Amino acid sequence: MDNKQHPTSGAAASRGTMKWWQLTMLGLGFTTGTGFFLGSGIAIEQSSYAVLIIFVLAALGTYFVYDALSCMIAEKPEKGSFRTYTKHAFGRWAGFSHGWMYWFSEMLILGSQLTALGLFTRFWYDKIPLWGYAAGYSLFGVAIVLLGQKGFEKAENVFAVLKVTALVMFIALAFLVIPGVLGQENAHMHPPKSFGDFFEHGAMGMWTGLVFAFFAFAGIEVMGLMATELKNPKDAPKAGKVMITLVTVLYTASLALALILAPKKDFNPDESPFVTALKDLHFSTIVDIFNGVLIIAGFSSLVASLFSTTKIMFTIAQDGDAPKLFTKQTKKRKLPYMSLFLTIGGMVVSVVAALALPKGVYEYITTAGGLMLLFSWLFMVLSARRLTKLTSWWAHVKSWSAMLLIAAAVTGTLFEKSTRPGLYVSAGFVVAIIGIGLILQFTKWKKGGGGEEGNAPERAEAESEEEDEGSPFRERLLRRRRALQKQ
Q1: Helical packing angle, 359-387 and 92-122, nearest 10°
Q2: pTM of the model
């Protein structure tokens, strides 16, 4: 962030063994999911060809958010990552709110991920009901999480390679089709005919579509959680910069070519734009292959959500912001099995809601989950502003740009009837969670309630503070923490 960092305190994460390029690979696996392969169709419906511009804007916003988070990680990685930084920036109520907000946002999204996986699979075999596919993918996803962190990393690396390879193959195929290398009957293009066609839905279309472009980059928060495993934490910003650059190039290039290969009128929000483009070329075999890629992308996102929510719930419980029951781990792999059971319970409720509620109602809930994720990103930027000293104009530009782009994406939902209810639902969740956090802050926590177990996080912080005293980089943070403790 072009600034001097004043990292947080608390239980610092132990030094890991991961290299920066491995984190980059994991990031590719976390982000390239159904938010892009399927959600980009909704963005096209809202913004037409200008979807390419809003994807670049979303990429910039994503980079600025990750830059804020990764610079804090670079100075002092924390087991709780973003929620721990928020806690030290604004107080315990904020850490409580951020952790639970993230957990609930992922729970609201899980049902839609499993439903989408079922629909993709029914493209091949429609005799099994949606709930059957949802149950199967759920069990498979939990099985990967049960393999522990190493197993999770290996699986996500494989998924990342497959998804990136598919996008590269699509781009290569398009470059062969357009000049007629694969037959003159397929040599056609459908570019916008004028400037007006490119901006068919105007500025308002770009505004309402921006939120869906942001959804395509969801996953950087999981990358932030995994960054604590880096051998050299100072490599965290580099890993994110490379990952976001690669993803942006792949996203914009593949979307641009998809829009050229098929007529604009053929695209619809219920189908991946890549499947639409391939259907127009009558490449049925490749359509089947890409349907498999959609399944891999959706399943990869599902596994990342299960892993991250389990990990974040464990750290929430460690800090005393959830029942101590959720800190229980297996002896060999240190798997927080009680936190995983809670996540599985939340996933079951989400799937039942997805299948039982009317389609429109559940879409509102899913949109709310995505918006709560953006609120979580906003917390990250605000925490970085509080805990770091911005020493250059560029650092201020990045910070303010991140907040403005997130604000634009969120407010854009007000002007689209299909997303407006989702904003109201997300606002309700956020207000309720923050309200509970503030009530606890000024009642139980302010009075020092909780006994010996409840004071354990504070004791850990005191010990960490003693370790930090000699560092000039941390004096500002220590002053901030002491001020919070006096409140």
Answers
A1: 140
A2: 0.87
